[in-house]
Amino acid sequence: MPQRSNKYDYIIAGAGSSGLSLAWHLIHSDIKKKRILVVDKTLTPANDKTWCFWEKDVPPFQQLIHKKWIQSEIMVDDDYSKEKLDLYPYYSIRSGKYRSAILSELDDHPDVTLLESPIIELTGNELRAELKCEQGRYQAKFIFQSCFEPTLKRSAVYPLVQHFLGWEVTTAYDVFDPDSFVLMDFDSTYQPGIAFMYVLPWTSKTALLEYTIFSKYTEQMETYETKLELYLNNRYGMNPIEYKIVRKEHGNIPMNDAVPNPWFAPRVLNIGTQAGLTKPS
Question: Are 170 and 244 in contact (CB under 8 A)?
């Protein structure tokens, strides 16, 4: 990591999935010699998210893949489908492992500076963009930000939110099929929106189960917890004393049709969720 200055070619404000992905691609591109500052309130990796995707060929960040599945299951009431994924296996990456690997590579790069500091303000004009944080002010030709809501955004006609609670559980005996994941097991009893269970078995004794809802409004935490407990009992015949919750994931992701302004300010570009680029999967 080079010594910190106050002027850079690019500043990435926010070290989440979009910010770190952008930084990684920049240092592996034709403009890898540009001076880059990555800023976030914390740069300590946390294993708080699970990112999954389909890939036909060799998956990106292959060395970071946590799990691969070759079969998927979908349940709608009494209809059950289990299909082999011959062309597009399903992969998962843990956010903690991903962040650790990318941040380590960025920290070793001679033209990248990492700064841990809460971001206060982003501004820009025709000549430059500026980031203000608790450590000071930093200027760049462009800033890419995933921290703040866009300043201009068309109202949503369909204000959907994807919200969920996930339990990562362990059991003392074999319960899950580690080669097959449940993409959607729909819950027809949930009326305010569309709800389903999503199950990612890591092994025959460990899995991540998420109760996921697409609706206008989020629910109280006890709603998700009740659904997860019922599913573990109804689908797998397990009572709470037969499994241990080792980790939780909770998300509240905008899935509406509002189109944000791509520019937060002159020379400050929105990325990630703030650019409306979050995909349902």
Answer: yes
Q: Please state, in angstroms and rounded to a whole number, the distance separating the CA atoms of residues 279 and 281.
A: 6
The residue-averaged pLDDT of 202-228 equals 97
3-state SS assignment for residue 93:
strand
| 269: pLDDT strictly greater than 70 | yes
pTM: 0.89
Chain mean position to CA 101: 16
CB 167 within 8 A of CB 248: yes
Q: Which two tokens stand for residue 93?
A: 């990456």
Interatomic CA distance for residues 249 and 228, integer angstroms? 12
pLDDT band at 281 (very low <50, low <70, confident <90, very high): low
Cα–Cα distance, 133 to 148 (Å, whole number): 13
All residues at 6 or more sequence positions from 96 whose CB lies less than 8 Å from its CB, including other chains: 45, 46, 47, 48
Would strands 36-40 and 7-13 be described as parallel, antiparallel, or unpaired? parallel
